[in-house]
Amino acid sequence: MQRLSRLKEEAALWEGVSSRIKDALELAELEDESLEAELTTEVDSLAEVVHKLNFEAMMSGKYDQEDAILSIHAGAGGTESQDWASMLLRMFLRWAESHKMDVEIIDQTDGEEAGIKSATLTMKGAHAYGYLQSERGVHRLVRISPFDANKRRHTSFALVEVVPDVQGDINIEINESDLEIDYYRSSGAGGQHVQKNETAVRIVHKPTGMVVTCQNERSQLQNRERAMQVLKARLFDLERRKQEEEFAQLKGDHVAVNFGSQIRSYVLHPYQMVKDHRTDYESGNTGAVLDGRLDEFMEAYLRAKVGQS
Predict the structure, then answer these.
(1) From the candidate CATH numbers 3.40.50.2000, 3.30.70.1660, 3.40.50.300, 3.30.450.40, the one assigned to the domain spanning 68-169+254-308
(2) In 3-state terms, what secondary structure has residue 213?
(3) What sections of 65-137 are H helices per DSSP?
(4) Cα gap 144→151, rounded to integer Å
(5) Helices (H), the chain
(6) What is the pLDDT of residues 294-309, one digit of tens each?
(7) What span, in angstroms and rounded, lies between the C-alpha atoms of 286 and 106?
(8) Strand pairing of 179-184 and 102-110?
(9) What is this structure's pTM?
């Protein structure tokens, strides 16, 4: 029903744009100077809408219209990397807010002094995975560290993982014997209920070494169910990517190692620049990017992806 609703909305949007273009053409044919300002405004508005539709049309993958599960993990480097991970979390939250997406943080582990060690969140909205697939990989920050009394330049790394949240389509059987499940008290917000009871859940999938934690729900059972959903989504994505790599090898294509690959650098010193190493797209407005303006980078990635397919 959710998929049907999204398709109806998408069809209605295209039909509406088609109708607006037809009306604008009819106005232009009248050659009435008094309508010039109105027509110019409408053409500019339509150009923005068409650009957005063209952007979304590039998201033609099987799961591009699904919701997304996004995880951020601080790299080695202690407080510096943990602060960078929290900056990335803020960046993605601001991006989601600008796209009117529903966000749920299902797990977050804070750093000892500042920042976060890791965070996992779900983003629900049109083409959530289609947009966010471009963010998977290692993000690198170069800046003068606010935690260094000598004001030296530091380089920090954080890993971003993104998988489609395709709960209804996942047909994966997990043996209970392959799981190691621990329960513990939540360290996050939630009041006395969370802190007095062992509601948080940590699941380790021993064959792959995958670790999933969840502490956002009110009960142990709810946290366990949500953690299992995330685990299934990650296992499903792992298997899907293996198949894609095998198919690419059969075609004779070069297969990049996506896990651990550095995809983007954010340089705040000695100059200001954000550069994507896959597409060479760059922006000097680092403040806007860190404030969630990611669409240009996502579009460049999708255009490169479409060109390679």
Answers:
(1) 3.30.70.1660
(2) strand
(3) 79-98, 128-132
(4) 6
(5) 2-30, 36-57, 79-98, 128-132, 191-196, 220-251, 286-290, 295-308
(6) 999 999 999 888 765 5
(7) 28
(8) unpaired
(9) 0.79
